[in-house]
Design goal:
- It is a single chain.
- This protein is mainly alpha-helical.
- The protein has 1 helix and 2 strands; from the N terminus they run ββα.
- It has a two-stranded antiparallel ribbon.
- A hairpin with a 6-residue loop joins strand 1 and strand 2.
Length: 58
């Protein structure tokens, strides 16, 4: 079972691997690896203080 995403143009469910919608032809933008790394880094920087706080409290 593959993951799917919704086309913002026609609301059709499209496989995650597809780069265009088969119904309306909408082209999904590619996300670069640098954007993914920045997102993971920001998530880690937000979660890390919470982990340290819980260690200090408990």
């Amino acid at each position: 079972m593959s993951l799917s995403r919704e086309c913002p143009s026609c609301a059709l469910s499209v496989d995650q691997d597809e780069s265009t919608c088969s119904y309306c032809g909408y082209e999904f933008p590619e996300t670069s690896n640098s954007v993914r790394w920045v997102a993971w880094l920001m998530a880690a920087l937000l979660v890390w203080p919470l982990i340290e706080l819980f260690k200090w409290i408990f």
